[in-house]
Batch of 2 targets.
Target 1
Amino acid sequence: MTIEQVAISESRGPLLDPSEGLRVYADDRAHLFHSWAAQGAVSPIPVAGAQGRHFWDYDGKRYLDFSSQFINTNIGHGHPKVVAAIKEQADRICMIASTFANDKRGEAARLIAGLAPGDLNRVLFTNGGAEANEHAVRMARVHTGRTKVMAAYRSYHGGTSTAIGLTGDPRRWDNDAAGNSGSGVVHFFGPYLYRSHFHATTEAEESARALAHLEQTIIFEGPRTIAAIILESIVGTAGVLIPPPGYLAGVRALCDKYGIVYIADEVMSGFGRAGAWFAVDHWSVTPDLITFAKGVNSGYVPLGGVIISDEIHETFRDRVYQGGLTYSGHPLACAAAVATISAMQEEGMIDNAARLGEEVIGPRLREIAAAHPSVGEVRGTGVFWAIELVRDPETREMLVPYAGVGAQNAPVNEVVAACKQAGLWPVYNFNRIHVVPPCNTTDDEALHGLAILDEALKIADSYV
Ligand code: PLP
């Protein structure tokens, strides 16, 4: 199928009134302040509807969603079982404070704890991922009586005060002009073989040297000052970096050796994204705290949380936990989580995500990498993939520079624009295109999106 045929066969959503789209756009531009954006440059597409792996605008143009809306709608759009569960819950009880026991809240916590490894048996619910990390860090500090927290360069942990300080991406510290949120945070380099900081040439070397570097950093910071190490089990926003074998187990061992709390940030990697309930399952590692959000209910109603080990829970048995949220364990969000987890189980979505990665997306992306000189590396698992673009395959010079501005970003912007034109909605982050469709994407949908991407990458090749 050529890209034109692809675009035509997939381009129509339901017929709607385009003038309504103009009104939606006008309200947005007059009154909305957008996240992570220069407000003058924002030009959002008014979205009229969404179903399955597609959404569409008021002109009826349909997009195949390879973004999962901030890598979040792991079950796609408008899943009927989850929509029905939210409606039923709304009819029964919309809000009851977390001081009360509530059926869906308890059931969601039981299901989530049941999926988590080891003795992580309790859940504190939050409204999203950043809040989950804020609370995990607070728990670790109280539990250990220490203050410093170690986090990786090339990470994203959320946009609130502590979470942005943990985030190892200085581009994002503008909103904290003096960098104050980072106080008490120590950053270190995690493994990233394609651009190894440790001059490693094999995964085994990268893993061993990254662990040696981490241990050195712990020793020079003073182990007795370090409350926690927080790590994305698979680094998401900063590059879909899969840890080499042995790395996470090594982090676990260092945490045990020095009495440090291991916080696994599974906000993006959890609930099927990596082809497993939690990405740590791939390496059979049990952290002390797991933070989650996004896929737990596909974001149909905001929900996040911290899954807590028995040992850390014990710290708060007789000691008040000085933290909480008005909306903690919101019944609508918890009802959506119960229905989402059940739908994922009943419909085999975790297996589908794993199979897609192994049999469809991974092999096709490797073919694409071989055909395009602009593709430096493809990496991923499940429905969690990145294509890293380079200007020079030999030197691995990035196609666009880190923190590039204006025309510097043109090569990637042009690839993304071509995808959108052809009806594919991808995610991109500086020199990478991320391929992150929902877990229940069909083989045909995945191949269709990758065909569009394949064609669009010719634009990137022209810059090599
Ligand atoms: N942690 C990770 C790994 C994330 O990817 C994100 C969001 O993308 C967050 C935390 C923050 O989550 P939220 O935007 O729900 O606060």
Note: The chain has 14 helices and 16 strands.
Target 2
Amino acid sequence: MSRLIVISNRVSPPKTEDGSGAQGGLAVALAAALREYRGLWFGWSGRKTDKFTGHIDMQRAHGVTTATIDLEEQDVEEYYNGYANRTLWPLFHYRIDLAEYDRSFGSGYERVNERFAETVTPLIEPDDLIWVHDYHLIPLGQQLRERGLKNRMGFFLHIPWPPSRLMVSLPYHEKLVRTMLAYDVIGFQTEEWLESFCHYVERELGGTVDPDGVIHVGDRSVHAAAYPIGVDFKEFTEALESDAARESFERLRTSAAGRRTIIGVDRLDYSKGLEERFLGYRRFLEKHPRYQRKLFLLQIAPPSRGEVATYEVIREHLDELSGRINGEFADVDWVPVRYVNQGYRREELAGFYRAAEIALITPLRDGMNLVAKEYVAAQDPEDPGVLILSRFAGAALQLKDALLVNPYSKDEIADAIMRAIRMPKEERIRRWKAMVEVVRQEDVVAWRHAFVEALEKARPPVRREPTP
Ligand code: ADQ
């Protein structure tokens, strides 16, 4: 069997064999894929160094080999905080108003992709399957080809692909997208992002798309498809059985004192629609005063990307807005918004999801959104909660039985909360059953199998040797 080489911006070495602990779902999923296929996981260590040396820190823990490199301060600033998070992230989430274009970001992005290519190439054997992840590393495949690698290579984009009309606002967009043709397989979260990509290929690159998803541009043919990512259903339902989950369930239910909990869990990011969510919830409180003391919103939002100014701004706005809503509506024995800025272990989160009668997950744009799926996975089959989900999350294409809302509309959010409160148990069960089937079947194991299988089937194309 071929080895699998996973390459992503950051690498999080597995902390325990079963994947429990404070890791995100994706880290757990990738670690499990590597245990299954052997191979290694390559990426940035998260550390900064004075001078880039290309030194690879190889470690083996719990059946997974990781290989990490340190980056220079300037690399991190231009590649990670710059091009990845200040240019591509906002643009790909349809926020061209927030996207910054700075020449140094682009050159830093290219430089770090070259550094990745340079250091990982000697670790790769001819038969390895290479799986590159996300917007940080779009040109990496091309860089690897230029170093002579003929391996089968796939790229998976975890975030949306923007409509062509937005994409063209990126300086040198064509150059960037053309590098993607170096891969054999390109995966998107949903058909919608895939469609936007195909539209771009046809309109801007003059390519054609076969009905079976093979894209042709010049002499290159690439297989492009949607591979919706899922949660590790088994791992998550097992986490629910843990003492930590039981304790966090009790903790939330006890403190709720008979009131209903509306839960939101998101990285603190403008794409997650937190301000709009708070305003929608405020509209609910305004419209339905008699329900005011019967529920509360628990928003868990650990800060992310603190070195990027827009994230500081959103954090300030949310501090201010949650304070304002609480000041306006709270009473001595009731606070309408519990706004928490910390991360929790997966077991604890599972318990919180189970204890919450309603989940309010309203990103303005999201590649998939795993929190929505985790919430569904965590529900009690006899008495499940209601999922209110943004129609602009990739997950909405699969979770059609959620209450789908336009996250920009305060009234739609307010009305959905009312509907969730009043929803009869039979309807809750019916909707949940339909959703949990999807979450169970299209889980993260199915996702990685589908992607790796597509990669295995891709014929290694014959390419030129690198020019000396
Ligand atoms: P994210 O934007 O980070 O991921 P999401 O898919 O919701 O968004 O995943 C977040 C993960 O972090 C979930 O597993 C969640 O449980 C965990 N998490 C969030 N808040 C937490 C907290 N306070 N404590 C502990 N854990 C917390 C990107 C894309 C998404 C895509 C994923 C996977 O933006 O659209 O679904 O990658 O492809």
Note: The mean pLDDT is 94.
